[in-house]
């Protein structure tokens, strides 16, 4: 065929797509979109002409790139692929015109084409394809079969290569030997393709038997992938492994689709597979340079793992009975005492008048060491609870299919969370004030002057004013940091497991000589359960200690407000003014501290639960029912949100064990 005829065919098919695209954009209520497709081609001659033009395009292009890469991606790796997508956004690559993928991009060049393609029901597409492509010439059928076989061979080889990657092999024992299902799949596919191409002594029965054997190998490969997913809590997960697992799943899925397309004699089933592939290809090509899609898909599993680790810790922050309630209060008192010390030390650092970098450094060190000491001693900081417990709530919502009483159990869980948060806030704030106040007077006794002079004391009080300062937005920023620190804790807990640091520690010959095997075993066990939390606390300290310096450097009004530190600072300021402040200042300060605490909790919990729900693919439709039930409980049993109440045996039985008090 000459270039002129080819161009006319492209133009005709492009105009056909433009008609559907325009109809979608102009659709009205009195003309449902699913009817548009059937109303475009009414004449049989037009249908035959369209089919002939599409056949000519298929016969003159290669399929492998489209069939093996669309919606799967390359083997470059997560960051390399992201970098490539970004560069292609600004400077698109030169596509080969003999590739079907290139022609596909030319036809569906509007980046929103996948909307109308997916909006048309599968049944409509199936009838359209079956009606248009009624007859295919033997030569074209043979050519399509050959391209499909080439694609099947490439997919099997790529799946085998990924299946024996060291990062995958290390998670599944003995997967790289001759019994590996990935290598077995590749061997079976090669045999199937060779026999099909040669057609030598390969009857229908033998081909069907080989096909079924390939399906068994695909099933075994999927089992290995599922094994990695199910045991991610044992050996952790990484960004690279997540990327590989997603690619493996896509290779196996596409391989199954193409094999069935070749093997089945059911015309209806063939066109349904073509419809599925067609929709996948349009979506893939329209979004192939989308960084948002790339990060969203590949980070979901990693995010799930990070959130899941905070969920395990979060269960310890929810009390279900009276003893647990007062145990949280005592732990909060311990945390408040440490914070009172930190407030005094930070104020003393302020009067050292250090350069801005060193001030931020020592502020961060002050916070980080204090937070880690609080964790080591088993105390708690109340505002860290929401970030750690949000995933526990999300886990209950995302598993409501297995829990018919999910609404009641989740409501009870939230009530217990609010109650636990309330008593923890009370414990932190109530003790931080007197501790800081008392330490200041002790300091005055030995040094003859207060930690904070009157100017600093007035400044500390002014920073608590909810009406005349930036206390509320600064508290919101602290809430963001609290949420991020929870994610960091989960990330490093996963990293410790994934890199097998515990095993590496207990087998380190130098450390064994220094500490002895028993001490080293205890240390490894402690870090396995606490390394993530320590890392999160350290990071939180850096965030809180450096924000003000960063704001000063860039001329931005950045700072943080945290309820427990606000209470401690108020104690220092009150002592610095010799316990003489007006009633208005008292009222404004108490209101400000309360508002800071509420904002800390709302932002931290809101962001954390949104992140957790996203990572678990939980539906937001349950939220309305949950809030309604929670509101009803508040108006009828409001005291349960603040004080422990007697819980019936039935209620305890309904609550999942994972959510009970530890």
TrEMBL record:
Gene3D superfamilies: Glycerol uptake facilitator protein. InterPro entries: Aquaporin-like, Site-sp_rcmbase. This is Site-specific recombinase. It comes from the Bacteria. It is found in: Membrane. Keywords: Membrane, Transmembrane, Transmembrane helix. It is a multi-pass membrane protein. The chain crosses the membrane at residues 363-382, 422-446, 471-492, 531-554, 585-613. GO terms for cellular component: membrane. It comes from Dyadobacter koreensis. Pfam families: SpecificRecomb (PF10136). Its main location: membrane.
